[in-house]
Amino acid sequence: MDSQTLVNLLLVMVFVLVGGVFAATEMAIVTLREGQVRALEEGGERGQRLAGLVRNPNQFLSAVQIGVTVAGFFSSAYGGSTIAPDLVPGLVAVGVPEAAAATLALVAMTLLIAYLSLVFGELVPKRLAMQNNLAFTRVLGRPLQLFATVVRPVIWLLSASTNAVVRLVGGNSSASEEEMTPEEIRDLIEGHQGLRPYPRRILTDVFRAGERSLTRVMRPRTDVQFLEADLTLDQALEHVRDLPHSRFPVTGTDVDDVVGFVHIRDLLLPPSTREDTTRVRDLARTILALPDSLEVLPALSRLRSEQQPLALVVDEYGGTSGLVTTEDLVEEFVGEIYDEHDTGSDPEDATRRSGESLVVDGSLNVEELSDLIGADVSDEDVDTAGGLVMSRLGRLARAGDVVEVAGQRLEVLSVDGRRVARLRVTAVEGPPRP
Known about the structure:
The protein is α+β, with helices and mostly antiparallel strands. The chain folds into four domains: 3-168, no CATH class; 180-211; 212-334, Roll (CBS-domain); 347-427, Uridine Diphospho-n-acetylenolpyruvylglucosamine Reductase, domain 3 (2-Layer Sandwich), CATH 3.30.465.10. It has helices at 3-30, 34-41, 44-54, 57-93, 98-131, 133-150, 152-168, 182-191, 197-210, 214-217, 233-240, 280-283, 296-306, 326-334, 366-373, 385-393; strands at residues 219-220, 227-228, 247-251, 258-263, 288-291, 310-314, 320-325, 358-361, 402-405, 408-416, 419-427. The strands form three sheets. Strands 1-7-6-5 form a four-stranded mixed β-sheet. It has a four-stranded antiparallel β-sheet with strand order 8-11-10-9, covered by helices on one side. It has a three-stranded mixed β-sheet with strand order 2-3-4. Strand 6 (310-314) and strand 7 form a beta hairpin. It is elongated. Mean pLDDT is 81; it is low at 344-354. Residues 218-277, 283-340 form the CBS domain. InterPro entries: CBS_dom, CBS_dom_sf, CNNM, FAD-bd_PCMH-like_sf, FAD-bd_PCMH_sub2, Ion_transp-like_CBS, Transptr-assoc_dom, UPF0053_domain.
C-alpha cells in the first residue's frame, strides 16, 4: 500500500469524523432538558442564540442532516473512487478473477467505510454527546449555527418540503415533540438516581394527590360540627366551647341546607355591640360549594382564587357529603400538619415496626392506611378503613369483628353508632384465611 493510498484513507476518515461531529451535535441538542435550555438562555447573548437554535428543530435538524449526508456521501464516493482501484491488484494477486476484482474491491471498501461511519461517525460521538449534552451544545452549537447560515437556502427548501409532507400525513408541523404524559413524568421521577428520597416522596405524593377526589380527603358530614342558623350567639358559644375547630358550617332546616359558615370570632361580639335578637344566621359568611368528584388540585385552586378557607362538599344530588379545608388539601401534598388541637400519635411514630399492631381511626383514608402499614389495602369502592371492613363483612360492623385484607388482620375495637370508630391492624403470619 503506497503513501497515496494512506492519504486517501486518512481523508476518508476525516469525512467520517466530520459526520460524527454533526451526529454528536444533533444528539446533544435533542437530549437537552427544558431546565438546561433555560440555563443556556440565562448565559448571556451567546446562550440565548444557542437556546434559539435548540427551540427551532427545523433549522438545526436540517443543518445536521445536510452535514451528515454530505460527509457520508464524500467518504463513500471518495473511498470508492480512489481506494477501491488500489485494492484490485492485490485481489488479482491472490487469485480473484480480474473481472470480479473491481466489484469485490468496491464492495469491500463500502463495507469498511460503513463500519467506520457507524463506529466513529455515529455510535461513539452520540454516546459521548448523551453523557455531556450541555457541554457539547455549548462547544458545537455555534459552529452549527454558522453552518446553518451558510446553507440557509437549502435549509429553507428542506424545511418547507418537510412541513408540507408532515401536514400531508396528518401531523402538526409546528410541534417539536410529543408532550410527556403524567405517567411518563412519574416514571422519570421514580427512576431518577440523583433525586434524594424525601424530595422524591414529595413529588410522588403530589401526583398521587392530584388524582384523588374530594371524597377521599374531605371530613364526612358525620364528623362535622354544624351550628343551627336560629341559635343565639350565647347558645352557639355554649355549643362550640369545647370543640377544637374555629369555623363551623351553619345549617337551615337540616344538614343538607347549609347557608354559610361562621368563625368563632364572629360569636364573640361584645355584649354591648350585639342585640338579643342576633342569630347565627345573621353572621353567616358565604361558603363555597364544590362537587365531591372534583380532584384535589382544582379544589385547592378554587379555594385560593375565591380566598376561602373551607368548602362544602356536595354529592350529585345536591346533598351535603362533608367539609374540606385548605389545610386538608395541603396535607395531601406535605403530610399531616399537627397543631395544639390535633390528637393522635406523632407522625414519626405512625409507621408500624415488624410484628407490631397499629390502632387507627375508622375514618382513616384507605390510601393513608396502605402507606402506614406498608401493604396495599386500597379499594375503589370505599374510602375509609371502616368502610373497607364493612365492605368485607357485608353488614354493619360490631366491636370484635375481624376481616383479613392483603395479609392484614383488621379488628374492630369500637363503633360509634353505625360507624367504625377504632381498628387494630396486625400483619397476618402466613397466607390469609379464606
